[in-house]
Write a structure and sequence with these properties.
It is a single chain. This protein is of the alpha/beta class and about 250 residues long. It has a five-stranded parallel sheet with strand order 2-1-3-4-5. The chain has a five-stranded antiparallel sheet with strand order 10-9-8-12-11, covered by helices on one side. A hairpin with a 4-residue loop joins β6 and β7. α2 runs parallel beside α3.
């Protein structure tokens, strides 16, 4: 892929939305050329004729939907990066299992387009590395992501597990604190703990799950509890009953 810009295919069965998406992509300085497809079948034909760096595709389309199209594109010898675009967030988790780099909520903004294209550029060296194709595509560490609500951008965002500092219970949701900011996830703390079991995360309090790899300081307290501090300045209490396990884990 050229250092200059990206070739992109935009796919949406609704013509006005397809035109808006193509316009936003063409306006971005990272993009060299944009082609469009008004159906998944048309997209498959165009993707067979030439290789795209990325495909921005709608989720809900007649006949062959975006998820099915993604499976077809992933089977290509040189598959493009996938960025889903949708008015609904119900398919977000399913798209991440298809190795999507991002999930944009309609109406799409130039800022979110640029963030997605940055992800495409960042992923390109891995995809181009012929010596490590399995690592680039299938490594749990590289591909384990979680879909969260970005309230400021009014959309969905993908967070890699390694970028998460800690997770806090928040009513029917959890708050996810990461390098890029604070997000919401409709889940329980127990479910998140189960998902990240054995991946460096530890429950240290009934309200907190922490990424031990991202802690910068642990301070013991006189009452038998402890406090953990993270790179973002956040401090998390460690309940007394969790202190022995914490000590065992950090001494490994």
């Amino acid at each position: 892929m050229s250092d200059a810009t990206l070739s992109v295919l935009a796919v949406d069965d609704e013509v006005p939305q397809l035109e808006d998406l193509a316009r936003l992509l063409r306006a971005n300085h990272r993009v060299s050329d944009v082609e469009t497809a008004a159906s998944a079948r048309d997209a498959v034909m165009k993707a067979r004729e030439r290789g795209y760096d990325a495909v921005f595709l709608d989720v809900r389309m007649p006949e062959l939907d975006g998820l099915e199209l993604a499976k077809v594109l992933n089977a290509f010898p040189k598959s493009p990066a996938l960025v889903f675009v949708s008015a609904f967030d119900t398919s977000a988790v399913a798209t991440f299992e298809l190795r999507a780099l991002d999930y944009l909520m309609k109406p799409v903004t130039p800022q979110r387009i640029d963030e997605a294209l940055k992800r495409v550029e960042a992923a390109a060296p891995l995809a181009a590395d012929a010596d490590e194709p399995a690592l680039a595509r299938d490594s749990p560490n590289a591909r384990d992501v979680i879909a969260v609500h970005d309230l400021r951008a009014r959309g969905m965002r993908l967070l890699t597990r390694s970028s998460i500092l800690y997770v806090a219970a928040y009513g029917d949701y959890v708050r996810v604190y990461a390098d890029s900011g604070r997000y919401l996830l409709r889940s329980s703390l127990t479910d998140v703990e189960r998902r990240f079991a054995g991946q460096g995360f530890l429950r240290v309090h009934r309200q907190y799950l922490v990424n031990l790899n991202r802690a910068v300081e642990i301070r013991a307290q006189l009452n038998g509890t402890a406090v953990m501090r993270f790179e973002n300045g956040g401090e998390i209490p460690v309940a007394r009953r969790h202190v022995p396990e914490l000590r065992r884990r950090v001494r490994k």
